[in-house]
Amino acid sequence: MAFKNFKIETDADGIALVTWDTPGRSMNVLDETSINELEAIVKQTSADTAVKGVVITSGKEALCAGADLSMLEGMARTYAETLKAKGEEAANQMLFDQSRRFSLVFRGIETSGKPWVAAINGLALGGGFELTLACHYRVAAENPKTRLGLPEVKVGLFPGAGGTQRVPRIVSPQDAMQLLLKGEAINLDLAKALKLVDAVVPAADMIKVAKDWIKAGGKAVAPWDEKGFKLPGGPVFSKAGMMMFPAGNAIFRRETYDNYPAARAIMSCVYEGLQLPIDAALRVESRYFTKILRSNEAAAMIRSLFLSMQELNKGARRPPNVPPTKVKKLAVIGAGFMGASVGYVSARAGIDVVLIDRDQESADKGKGHAASVIDDLIKKGRAKPGDRETILSRISATADYNALKDCDLIIEAVFEDRKIKAETYAKAQPLLKDNAIFASNTSTLPINSLAEEFRDQGKFIGIHFFSPVEKMMLVEIIVGKNTGDVALATALDYVRTIGKTPIVVNDSRGFFANRCVMRYINEGTEMLLEGVPPAMIENTAKMAGMPVGPLSLSDEVGLDLGLRIMKATEADLGPNAIDQAQKKLMVEMVEKQIRFGRKNAKGFYDYPEKGKGQKSLWPELGALQPKHLDPDTLDVEELKQRFLVVQAVEAARTVEDHVITDVREADVGSILGFGFAPFTGGTLSYIDFMGTKKFVELCHKLEAKYGSRFTPPKLLLDLAAKGETFYGRFPPKKQAAA
User: Fold this and answer.
1) Is the pLDDT of residue 558 over 80?
2) CATH code for the domain defined by 514-658+662-729
3) Closest alpha carbon to 556 in 586, 596, 516, 525
4) In this predicted structure, what is the pLDDT of residue 252?
5) What pLDDT shows up at residue 209?
6) Sign of dihedral through CA atoms 184, 187, 192, 197?
7) CA–CA separation, 212 vs 657, rounded Å?
8) 187: nearest Cα among 142, 157, 217
9) What is the distance between the alpha carbons of residues 710 and 682, in angstroms, rounded to a whole number?
10) Is the pLDDT of residue 642 over 80?
C-alpha cells in the first residue's frame, strides 16, 4: 500500500523502516492525512507476521513540528456548526471522537504487539514528541540543535495525545509539571538524563542502533503496561505526592492567576490520570482536551499566537510587487543601549554592522555592550565561546559618518529629540548610496514629521524596536504617507532576517503599541491619584493577565522619559492633550525627588544593589497620594477590567484612525509588544470574544465612573449595533508568503 506522507521499507531481518516525509512542506506535521496513514501503517505492520518490529524516523531535518493547529481550529468551527444543527450532546461527542484520534492511534502503536522505535533525527515537538513517547524505545541522533518538548500550553492547549500521562510515568511529577506547564523545549542531554530519550548516538549510527535494539529482543510493552509498574514519583496519595500536588497547585495559582484553563487542565489530568490505569487515564486526558478545545482562550491563542503570528512572520504584509531584498551591511547611528542592542541582534543574524556615535569612545562603548551580552550568554551556556569572535567580528564602531557609504539600511537610534534627529539626517543624507533605506527607531515622534527633514521620503520609514531588543520579539514598522513599497519590503525582510515578528502600522503619535501601553501605564497612575493602594494596583494588573504592574512598567520605561514625552505632547498639541494631575505627579517624582525609575534605582520602586534582594515599592509613595481609599471597599474585578478595557478601547481607536489596517497585527502586536493578557488573544480578540455589544456596555459603565478614556469610538458602536466583530468585518487577507 502506497502512502502520501510515509515510505515503508522492510529489511531482511523483518524490521520495517517507516520514513515520514510530507511532500511540499519543510516540516512534518500531524494532520488528518498523516494520522490516517499512520493508523493504517500500525494495522498493516501489526497484521504482517513477517514484520518483527518498526523504526519510525523522518526524511527531513526534523522529526515533527507537532499537530496542524489550523486543523484544530477547523475542528472548533465544525463543533460550532454541529452545536447549531444537532445540539450540545451530538457536538460534544463529535469533538471528543475527533480530538481523540491521535491518542488512540498512538496507543495502537504502544499495544500493537510489535516493538516500535522512534529514531529522532531532529526537532520533535508537541504531537511529534508524543508520538516518540508512545514508542517502546527512543534513540536520537547527536545534534546540538535538536529540541524535544510539549509547547501546547503556549497556545492555550495542552498535550492531548498522551503527553500528560506518559511524561509523568517516565519522570518525576515535579519534572513533568515543568515540562507540561512551561512548554519549554529541552535539549538531548536533559532529555537523556530524564530518560525521555534512551540513547543518543552519532547520526550515521541512529537507524542501526534502533534496529539492533529490536533484533536484541526489545520488548513491545510499555513500562506502565507491565504488572507491578511503579510511578517514578510514587503514588499520588503518598507523602511525596502530598508534598508535590498542593504546592504545585499554589504555584500554578501564583503564576497564572487561574487565567489559563489549559494549565489548570494539565494539573487535573496529571493528578487524576496517575490514579488510574493508562487507558482510563488517556480517556480522562481526551475529555479535558475536548473541553479546552471549546474554550475561548484556546481559540483566541491559537489564532493570534500561532496562525496569525506565523502568517505575519512569513510576510503577510509584504508588498508582493517587490523582489526579495537582502541587507548585507547595516549602519546604526546612535550606539547607546538601544542602538547597540539593534547592532548586536543584527550581527547575530549574520549582518555586518557599523555602530556610529558622536565620538569613538561612545561607539566603542556600544560594541562593548554587544560583547557583554555574548559573555553573559556564554556564562549561562546559551552560546559557545567561538560565537563571541564570530559576532563581534561583524561589528565595527566609529565616529566617522563616511562609514555609511556602502550600507544598505541605516537605522537612526539617537536621542528622542527632533532637533538632534534633524541634525543626524543632515549629516547622513549626502553620504547614502542611491538605493539605501533610512529608518528611524523613534518610539513616539510621528514619522511624517521626521520625514520632512529627509530629501527622498519614499526611502524613509520607521523601524521601532522594543527594549530589551535581545528578548522582545516584536518590531513595529511605521509607514509614513510618502514611504515607498521598496522601503517597506526592505524593512520587513530585515526584520525577518533577525528573527523578529513585524507589524506594519500607519503613522500616528505613539503608533500602535505605545498608544495602547501608555493607556495602561496612565491607568495605574490614575488609580494612584484616586487613592488605590500601590500594591493593589500592581497585583490587580497582574491578576488581569499583564506581565508586570503599571508602576513597575513606568520604572522600566523611565519616569524621566515619561515626563519628557508628556512635555513634548503638550508643546505640540496644547495643555488639554495630557493629564495635568499626572504631569504634576511626574514633575514631583522626577524633578523634585530625583526618581527616574530603574535606571537610577529609584522610581515608584526602590531597587537594591545588583544581586542584593528584590525591588520593593517606595515607602513614601503613599505620601504623594491626594487621598487613600480603603482596599476592602474596592471592586477587584472592576480594577482588572479597567486595565484591559482602557487598552482595548485604544486599540479600537487605532483601527478607526487607520493606524492598524490588519486586525492580526493589533492582536499579535499587543501580546508581543507589551504583554497584553495572552489568554485573551490580544486587544481586539478580547473585544470580539466578549462580544462587541457586551464590551460597549462595559465601556459605558466605566466611562460614567471614570471619564472619556473609556468612551468607545464610533466604529466600535457601529460593530456593537450590528452584532459584528473586528475579525468579521475586517477579515485578514490571505496572501502568499514572499
Assistant:
1) yes
2) 1.10.1040.50
3) 596
4) 87
5) 97
6) positive
7) 66
8) 142
9) 18
10) yes
Residue 606: exposure state from Cβ atoms within 10 A (0-12, 13-18, ≥19)? middle
Per domain, the residue ranges of the chain are 6-294, 329-510, 514-658+662-729
Structure confidence by residue, pLDDT tens digits, 710-729: 999 999 999 999 999 999 99
Q: Provide CB contacts within 8 A for 657, sequence distance 6+.
A: 508
- Residue 653 grid cell: 481607536
Contact 556, 526 (CB under 8 A): no
Angle of helix 278-293 relative to helix 261-273, nearest 10 degrees, comes to: 170
What's residue 733's pLDDT? 79
Q: State the DSSP string of 635-661.
A: -HHHHHHHHHHHHHHHHHHHHHTTS--
pLDDT over 90 (residue 272): yes
* Rounded Cα distance, 417 and 163, in Å: 53
Closest CA to 210 of 53, 63, 58: 53
> What is the CATH T-level fold of the domain 6-294, as seen in this structure?
2-enoyl-CoA Hydratase; Chain A, domain 1 (3.90.226)
Those residues with Cβ within 8 angstroms of residue 421's Cβ, 6 or more apart along the chain or in another chain: 412, 414, 415, 440, 442, 445, 450, 453
| CATH superfamily name and code, 329-510 | NAD(P)-binding Rossmann-like Domain (3.40.50.720)
CB atoms within 10 A of CB 76: 17
616: helix, strand or coil: strand
Q: Kindly give the pairing relationship between strand 395-398 and strand 352-356.
A: parallel
Query: Cα–Cα distance between 316 and 737 in angstroms, integer?
Result: 6
